[in-house]
Design brief:
With 391 residues, this protein is of the alpha+beta class. Helix content is 55%, strand content 13%. It folds into four domains: 1-22 and 269-305, no CATH class; 45-132, no CATH class; 134-268; 307-384, no CATH class. The chain has helices at 2-21, 37-40, 43-66, 73-85, 94-108, 117-132, 182-193, 197-216, 224-239, 243-247, 249-252, 270-291, 296-302, 333-341, 358-379, 385-390, and strands at residues 32-35, 135-147, 155-169, 172-180, 256-265. The protein has a five-stranded antiparallel beta sheet. Strand 3 and strand 4 (172-180) form a beta hairpin. Helix 1 (2-21) runs antiparallel to helix 12 (270-291), helix 5 (94-108) crosses helix 6 (117-132) and helix 14 packs across helix 15 (358-379).
Length: 391
């Protein structure tokens, strides 16, 4: 069974994840803005732009959900957004807003359309998470590839170098996480060194991976501009390629240009979103191989054995819990129930695009576990644990 599980995980890495990892391209859409260094320092303006992007994203989500199901979809779309904007005022009751939106949707449904109330509620939770999230992605300095060979079609790809996960706190852009796009670095090295991409991966794979790991751990408390300068100097240490060489990449290949601009968006690169999963699966394969240990939940899942699965809508999961991650906005009802139900389910899958509350939920679960353990210690503070153990 050990060998079978290893092979299954390797197959998933090779055929499933590798296809997603090839998506290093950033698509610039109406849900993103491009700014230069000067404009990025105008945080008030950036905040306004982010609000506009949020409204566009919300409008798209609402349109997808209600089209063909309701009367006057455009008017209803506007009404829902007006309700959601009220959530940005901290003293507004989220439950009332959600109830108002649900009623508006139900009132406008065509008679023959039947949507489960739970589906409407889950949809509204997602909208609330988008409007309340302060996080966004900032893609700094990117390589643009332009191919004009086809007269009828001009191929344009934008490949970001540095990836910042940020939020706005007290009129400052605060960096939460940072990463580098290895696929872009491979292309840069391939063009500048005039090597095949596979040759670059073989020659510089370890250096780029070590560089990426150092970048992840180097937020340094500095601003974005300071960090970018630091990252370029580190890149030269690992690969001997300087920022000046990257700026002049067009001299090596006229199809490539470097842009020292910043793309602000709510959208995450597919390659970036899956990278942590890839690393976790690789680590798991090593654990199974070297330690002869197979996690019980994984074994049950792959053997198709029945796993523990509880309905999070059960009334018992609506009870209060002890721990809470302090945040400007509380968790939604569905996140609240998941926090309570997480221990009763072997596997819990949480999905959603950036800004829908996945990270907030994880923080809430961790906070609750910490407080529950602390409470257990306090409850047994005066107990003779050694005596209990021997009994």
């Amino acid at each position: 069974m050990k060998k079978e599980i290893q092979n299954t995980l390797k197959y998933y890495l090779e055929y499933e994840i590798s296809n997603i990892l090839n998506s290093s391209e950033l698509k610039i859409s109406k849900n993103s803005i491009i700014v230069n260094k000067e404009k990025l320092q105008n945080v008030k303006k950036i905040k306004q732009e982010l609000e506009n992007i949020k409204e566009k994203k919300l409008s798209e989500k609402i349109k997808q959900f209600i089209t063909g199901k309701v009367k006057n979809p455009e008017e209803l779309n506007k009404q829902i957004i007006q309700e959601l904007i009220k959530l940005e005022i901290s003293d507004v009751d989220e439950i009332i807003i959600m109830s108002n939106i649900k009623n508006k949707i139900k009132e406008n449904l065509y008679e023959k359309v039947n949507i489960k109330e739970k589906a409407i509620e889950n949809f509204i939770y997602k909208l609330c998470d988008i409007i309340q999230s302060q996080e966004f992605y900032l893609y700094s300095h990117y390589i643009t590839y332009i191919n004009n060979q086809n007269q009828n079609y001009k191929e344009v790809k934008n490949l970001p170098i540095f990836i910042f996960n940020c939020d706005i706190y007290e009129n400052d852009i605060r960096i939460i996480e940072v990463n580098v796009n290895p696929e872009t670095l491979n292309i840069i090295l391939s063009v500048i060194l005039k090597k095949d991409i596979t040759e670059v991966v073989l020659d510089y794979g370890d250096e780029i991976e070590n560089y990426r790991k150092e970048i992840i751990n180097t937020i340094d408390g500095g601003d974005i501009f300071h960090l970018i300068d630091l990252y370029y100097s580190k890149l030269e240490e690992y690969t001997t390629i300087s920022k000046e060489q990257i700026k002049n990449i067009y001299k090596k290949n006229k199809n490539y240009r470097m842009n020292e601009e910043y793309i602000i968006t709510l959208d995450e690169l597919a390659a970036q979103s899956i990278k942590n999963i890839k690393e976790d699966i690789e680590a798991l394969i090593e654990i199974i191989k070297n330690d002869n240990y197979i996690p019980k939940t994984l074994e049950k899942y792959l053997k198709n054995v029945e796993i523990n699965k509880k309905d999070i809508n059960d009334k018992k999961y609506k009870r209060p819990y002890l721990g809470n991650y302090k945040n400007e906005f509380g968790v939604s009802q569905i996140q609240y129930q998941i926090t309570n139900a997480i221990k009763d389910n072997d596997i819990t899958a949480i999905e959603g695009p950036p800004g829908t509350g996945k990270t907030s939920l994880l923080k809430e679960i961790i906070a609750n576990n910490i407080v529950e353990r602390a409470n257990l210690i306090l409850e047994n503070w005066d107990e003779d644990l050694e005596y209990k153990k021997s009994k």
